[in-house]
Design goal:
Blueprint: H1 2-18, E1 20-23, E2 33-39, E3 46-53, E4 71-74, E5 81-86, E6 96-104, E7 110-117, E8 120-131, E9 134-137, E10 145-155, E11 164-165, E12 167-175, E13 184-192, E14 197-200, E15 208-218, E16 228-231, E17 236-241, E18 247-249, E19 252-256, E20 260-266, E21 273-280, E22 284-287, E23 293-294, E24 297-304, E25 311-321, E26 324-335, E27 339-342, E28 361-364
Parallel strand pairs: 8-11, 9-17, 19-26
Antiparallel strand pairs: 1-2, 2-5, 3-4, 3-6, 6-7, 8-10, 10-14, 12-13, 12-15, 15-16, 15-17, 18-20, 20-24, 21-23, 21-25, 22-24, 25-26, 27-28
Length: 372
């Protein structure tokens, strides 16, 4: 019996001098998990773990989540323990120094470990995506450019300021060359590091290509972040194509029924194509057909079957270049041929020399002149 007692005392003494406990990190943000390991206890014994504020104040006995209550863990065959503790996210752990205690209930072995829930600064890390390159028509609404970035957090001290999403300035630049330096600022936003994306809608008021990039800058944080900046690794190109002009030769003309006409179409913008549709007043027809067409010349013959009044053909012309379009109009007035009707006086008569007679004629339509 004496031998057994001596062996037991030796084991207890060994456990008391070699027990240890630790967490996987020295500092944790609120809401994170501290993973706990320990060794040097008796195999199969119960070890009581507890995390308390080092200064013994705050919510050691009143934590709403019960985070500071002790809990048991049973060792494995080698006397090792494994457990975890969740750092409360909305209590008073922020900035605290915490004391982890492990006590073997059979061996009496104990171990202590310190860790912190210190103050942090969060600030931009690097851009993750940058999109929005596009080709547009003059004065159209361009797609928005979008940049996204990741953030990182540094750890200060337990007696620092409150955890901080530090203030940041987001600046969009445009550049006439494909470069992320030397540009002109077009939009500036002041916010904080809780923001991780930004958008900008480029102007399409002028034709040409501009290159856009983003710079995010910040001053030193209140706890640990140093002043710095990040810039997109490249640019997004936004091209604006001009709207083609339309030159019609002539824009308006008047012809007689049965005559042909042509309208030349051109543009100062090389590579412009043209198409047209027409609108005809009643009793007016075109040959070879009344349909629209395409090309650089509008050419038809016109027939006005209304013997009283002129009729108008209106052509709506569409110009297209690099996907951009414009419209214009041209008109052709088609006069009807005059028709005679009997007037006053004889239609046929015989007169003697030296005497006179008179004739009169009338015509349907307007602005009719006569020759004989």
């Amino acid at each position: 019996m004496l031998v057994v007692a001596l062996v037991t005392l030796a084991l207890l003494a060994r456990a008391q001098t070699t027990a240890s406990v630790s967490t996987d990190q020295l500092d944790y943000p609120p809401g994170s998990t501290a993973y706990i390991t320990g060794s040097g206890f008796l195999a199969g014994e119960t070890v009581t773990l507890q995390v308390l504020h080092l200064d013994g104040t705050l919510d050691n006995t009143s934590s709403p989540s019960g985070a500071h209550m002790p809990w048991p863990v049973v060792t494995d065959s080698l006397g090792n323990i494994s457990s975890f503790w969740i750092v409360p996210s909305d209590e008073d752990e922020l900035g605290a120094t915490l004391k982890l205690t492990a006590i073997g209930q059979s061996s009496g072995a104990s171990a202590v470990w310190m860790f912190t829930d210190n103050k942090t600064d969060t600030y931009p890390n690097s851009f993750t995506t940058f999109t929005g390159s596009s080709t547009n028509c003059l004065n159209a609404v361009a797609p928005a450019l979008t940049a996204n970035w990741s953030v990182r957090t540094c750890t200060g001290t337990a007696n620092g300021n409150s955890n901080s999403n530090i203030p940041i300035t987001i600046t969009w630049y445009k550049n006439s060359s494909n470069s992320t330096s030397g540009g002109t600022s077009v939009q500036t936003t002041n916010t904080n590091a809780g923001t991780t994306s930004t958008t900008f809608t480029p102007s399409t008021a002028s034709a040409g290509t501009l290159y856009y990039y983003v710079v995010i800058s910040w001053a030193a944080g209140s706890n640990c972040a140093l002043a710095g900046s990040i810039t997109t690794s490249g640019t997004q190109a936004v091209s604006v194509n001009p709207t083609p002009d339309i030159i019609t030769t002539p824009t308006a003309q008047t012809i007689c029924s049965g005559s042909s006409f042509s309208i030349g179409l051109s543009s100062s913008l090389v590579g412009t194509s043209f198409s047209w549709s027409n609108s005809l007043q009643s009793n007016l027809s075109l040959s070879p057909n009344d349909a629209g067409g395409s090309g650089s010349t509008i050419s038809y013959s016109a027939n006005n079957s209304n013997n009283n009044n002129a009729r108008t053909a209106t052509f709506t012309i569409t110009a297209t270049n690099s996907g951009c379009t414009s419209t214009s109009a041209a008109t052709v007035v088609v006069n009807a041929p005059p028709t005679f009707t009997a007037g006053s006086g004889p239609v046929n008569t015989t007169v003697n020399a030296g005497t006179s007679t008179s004739f009169s004629v009338a015509s349907q339509g307007s602005n009719v002149t006569y020759q004989w």
